[in-house]
Write a structure and sequence with these properties.
The protein is of the alpha/beta class. It has 3 domains: 2-139, Rossmann fold; 151-315, Rossmann fold, CATH 3.40.50; 398-475, Arc Repressor Mutant, subunit A. Helices cover 51% and strands 11% of the residues. Helix 18 (450-457) crosses helix 19. The longest helix has 33 residues, at 110-142. The termini are far apart.
Length: 475
C-alpha cells in the first residue's frame, strides 16, 4: 500500500519542493518535506521510519553531498534519490560513490519520478532480502554451517554429515584457528540432539584445579570459597553434547575422571559422596599430536581411543587456498553489515596478496584482519600487513632454523651481513629469538613444568602455550 510508504523530500527550491510533494501526495504516498539538509537530518534522527529520501544536490548552508554523508551515518539502507541540474555529471558520480541509490535530472516528468521511486524501493527490498540472508548465514555459521569453496572442506562436510546422527565420540584435529569449534557445532546441530544443550569447555584456558571443578562441579564446602554447590559442565550438557576444546592440555589426574565418564557415564562432584549419572555425547578437539603425547606419557592411550572413534582432520588454510578469497568476501560482507560500513577493496590488488600470505593463524587470523579492515577502513594497512607481516611470519614458522639467516645468539645480525631486510621483519626476528631463548631457559629450569615456567615468566599459562607454539619449541 502506497500510504505505508513514507518519503522525505529535501529541496531548497520552494516551487520544485511543492511540485514533488503534490505529485507524491496525489500518487498516494505519505510525504514530509524540508527546505534544507540540517532540518531533514533532525527529522531523520528522531524518526527513521522513512522508505525513501529525495534529496537535491545544490543547496545553501549544507549541500546534498554533505547531507547524504550524514544520512549514511544514520542509516546505510534507506534509499536516497538525488536531484541534479544539467551539467552536474561529476557531482552525480560522487553522490553515487557516497551511497546514493539513483538520480534524476531536473526538470523531470511525472512518469520519470514514479519510475525512479519504484526502482529505488525495489532496490531496497532486494537489499533487505540479502541482509536477511546474511543474518541467517551468520546464525547458520554459529550452528555449524560451513562457509567453504574447496574440495578438502567438502570432504570434511561429507564426513560430518555421515556421523552427525550417530552418538559416537569424535576427535577433531587441526591447527589453531582452522575451525574445529565450527565442526563440533555442525556435529551437534545436524544430530538428533540439536534441541539439547551444546556446552563448550576450553581445557587450555583453566589451571588443573579450576578445570576439574568446571567440568564436574562441586559440593558446598568442597574447598575454601565453595559456599554453595555448583553443577559442572557435564551436568549442564546432560542429554546433549559437550565439546572439550584443546583436550591435549588436560591434566592426567582429570583424564582419569574423564575416562570414568566415557566408560560409565558417571562421575562425582568435588567433595561429593554420590555419583552423578549423565548421558552426554563427547566431541573433543586438539591442535597437538596426541599420539606423540601418549608416547611422552602426558595423555592416556585409553582415553585417546575412546575419543577417537571417528577422526576428523581439518586442513590448514594454506592447504585449501580456494577458500581464502571466498571467506574474505564473506567476512567483508558480514562486518560491513554489522558495523554499518561499505568498505570495498580492489580484487586485483588484494587477492594475490591474500593468496601469497601464509596465514599461520588460519581462518581466525583472516577473520580478525577483515574485521580490523572494516572497522578502521584502512586498506593500506591490510596491504602492509600482508606484505610485511607475511614475510615476518614465514620466518616465525621456520624459526628453529633461523641461524641460517645469520642471527647471533642475542638475536642480532652480525657485522658483514649484506642482506637487507625490512626493519619490521628484523625486529620481529630478534624479538622471537629473544623470547624463545628465555622460554627455553624457564622450561629447562622447571624441568619442563609449563605452569611453573609461566609463573617465572610472568605470563598466563595460555599465553605461554601460544608462545611455545609460535617459537617452534619442542621438548
Amino acid at each position: 500500500m502506497k500510504e505505508d510508504i513514507r518519503i522525505l523530500v529535501v529541496d531548497d527550491d520552494e516551487s520544485i519542493r511543492r511540485y514533488i510533494v503534490k505529485l507524491l501526495t496525489q500518487g498516494g504516498y505519505n510525504v514530509q518535506a524540508f527546505s534544507g539538509g540540517k532540518e531533514a537530518l533532525r527529522e531523520l534522527r528522531s524518526n527513521q521510519n522513512y522508505s525513501l529520501i529525495i534529496l537535491d544536490i545544490l543547496m545553501p548552508d549544507m549541500d546534498g553531498l554533505e547531507t547524504l554523508s550524514e544520512i549514511r551515518k544514520i542509516s546505510k539502507d534507506i534509499p536516497v534519490l538525488m536531484l541534479s541540474a544539467l551539467g552536474q555529471t561529476n557531482i552525480i558520480v560522487k553522490a553515487m560513490k557516497a551511497g546514493a541509490t539513483d538520480y534524476l535530472v531536473k526538470p523531470f516528468e511525472e512518469e520519470k519520478l514514479e519510475v525512479a521511486i519504484t526502482k529505488s524501493l525495489e532496490k531496497r527490498r532486494l537489499l533487505n532480502e540479502i541482509s536477511s540472508l546474511r543474518r541467517q548465514l551468520r546464525i547458520d555459521e554459529l550452528k555449524g554451517e560451513f562457509i567453504y569453496n574447496s574440495p578438502k572442506m567438502q570432504k570434511v562436510k561429507e564426513l560430518v554429515d555421515q556421523v552427525a546422527e550417530t552418538d559416537v565420540s569424535v576427535l577433531i584435529e587441526g591447527e589453531s584457528g582452522t575451525g574445529k569449534e565450527l565442526v563440533a557445532r555442525a556435529l551437534h546441530y545436524k544430530s538428533r540432539l540439536r534441541d539439547k544443550p551444546f556446552v563448550k569447555v576450553n581445557c587450555a584456558a583453566l589451571p588443573h584445579d579450576l578445570l576439574e571443578s568446571e567440568l564436574f562441579g562441586y559440593e558446598r564446602g568442597a574447598f575454601t570459597g565453595a559456599y554453595r554447590s555448583k553443577p559442572g559442565k557435564f551436568e549442564l550438557a546432560n542429554n546433549g553434547t559437550i565439546f572439550l576444546d584443546e583436550i591435549g592440555e588436560m591434566d592426567l589426574a582429570i583424564q582419569s575422571k574423564l575416562l570414568q565418564v566415557l566408560q560409565e557415564g558417571t562421575f562425582s562432584r568435588l567433595g561429593g559422596k554420590q555419583d552423578v549419572q549423565v548421558n552426554v555425547r563427547v566431541i573433543a578437539a586438539t591442535n597437538k599430536d596426541l599420539k606423540k603425547a601418549i608416547e611422552q606419557g602426558t595423555f592416556r592411550e585409553d582415553i585417546y581411543y575412546r575419543l577417537n572413534v571417528v577422526n576428523i582432520k581439518i586442513p590448514p588454510l594454506t592447504e585449501r587456498r580456494e577458500d581464502i578469497t571466498y571467506l574474505f568476501e564473506y567476512f567483508l560482507d558480514t562486518y560491513n553489515e554489522k558495523y554499518g560500513k561499505a568498505v570495498q577493496v580492489s580484487k586485483e590488488e588484494i587477492y594475490p596478496l591474500l593468496l601469497e600470505y601464509p596465514w599461520p593463524g588460519n581462518v581466525r587470523e583472516l577473520k580478525n584482519q577483515v574485521k580490523r579492515l572494516v572497522i578502521l577502513g584502512n586498506v593500506d594497512e591490510l596491504v602492509g600487513y600482508l606484505k610485511g607481516s607475511g614475510k615476518g611470519l614465514v620466518v616465525e614458522r621456520s624459526f628453529v632454523d633461523s641461524r641460517d639467516r645469520g642471527l647471533d645468539s642475542m638475536g642480532s645480525f652480525p657485522e658483514g651481513d649484506d642482506e637487507i631486510v625490512p626493519l619490521k621483519v628484523a625486529a620481529k626476528e630478534a624479538t622471537i629469538r629473544a623470547e624463545r631463548n628465555m622460554i627455553l631457559k624457564a622450561l629447562k629450569g622447571t624441568n619442563w613444568n609449563k605452569k611453573k615456567a609461566a609463573s617465572l615468566l610472568k605470563v598466563s599459562y595460555k599465553a605461554l602455550l601460544y608462545k611455545i607454539k609460535e617459537c617452534g619449541i619442542e621438548k
